[in-house]
Amino acid sequence: MENSQEKAMGTPSDTPQPENASPARAAAVGRRRLIKAGAAAVPVAATLVSRPAFAWHGKTPSAWGSEQLNPNTSLAAVHTAYVDEVWTIANWANNSGRAGLSNTWNALAQAYPAIRTSRNTINGVFDYQKVLFSELCAAVPLLRAPSGVPASTKVASGLASNSGSFQAIVVVAQLNHILLSSRIPDLNRIVSLQALQQMAAGTFKPNTSGQQAVWSQGTTIQYLQQNYLAV
Question: What three-state secondary structure class fits 83?
Answer without folding.
Answer: strand
